[in-house]
Amino acid sequence: xxxxxxxxxxxxxxxxxxxxxxxxxxxxxxxxxxxxxxxxxxxxxxxxxxxxxxxxxxxxxxxxxxxxxxxxxxxxxx
Length: 78
What we know:
The chain is mostly helical. The chain has a domain at 12-65. The protein has 3 helices and no strands. The protein has helices at residues 10-22, 27-53, 57-65. Helix 1 (10-22) crosses helix 2. This is Toxin-antitoxin system HicB family antitoxin. It comes from Limnohabitans planktonicus II-D5.
């Protein structure tokens, strides 16, 4: 495990501390989870961008051609 000195503006520190208390977590746990969520989101975005780059438009057209031609269900209209 590593330690890291973090400088936060007072207002952000106070808000994070308040949210951590509401979550019944330490500020350290709260910040650790926040960083983990951000890392996960960035990794997911990179994963999907890579997958999209490898997509084949012909495969997509073949897949979409199998979808029945009918009106959307109620509530799904545009």
